[in-house]
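Progress report, Aim 2. The chain analyzed during this reporting quarter is listed below.
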Amino acid sequence: MLDTQATKTAPSLLYMVKQVELVVRSHLDELVRPSGITALQYTALTVLERHDGLSAAQLARDSFVTAQSIADLVRSLENRELVRRERNPRNRRELLILLTDAGRELLTQYEEPVRELEERMVRELTAHQTEQFRQALSRAWHALS
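Predicted structure tokens for the chain:
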């Protein structure tokens, strides 16, 4: 008699990626909650840390949110003085979003706990497997972008 568990198909990679994304977001939300921001807001701040002075449209794309929701997200961060907006000197109609010193301080405050969360996620992988995982995720992202 066949073991029904063994004959079931493995979950799809898309399903597994979504599971990881949801659990990471849940842990990140819990982690940054004391600062009064969400995981999505934290993500936007980290995007600005790497590429300061983005348009709202670019920040939305790089932060994985819609153009419609980025306005509220930026407004909230701006009200907390974590970001500021200024006119683009090359295109006066465009506003650029920049990280403030307070935003940088918040990111510094969470640098270690976020690193620990990432380490927890890959703790059963070797350093080589972790690097392979990073490269595989990057290639998968590029393939769909």
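The two ends are 45 Å apart (CA to CA). The beta strands are 54-55, 83-88, 91-99. These observations will guide the mutagenesis work planned for the next reporting period.
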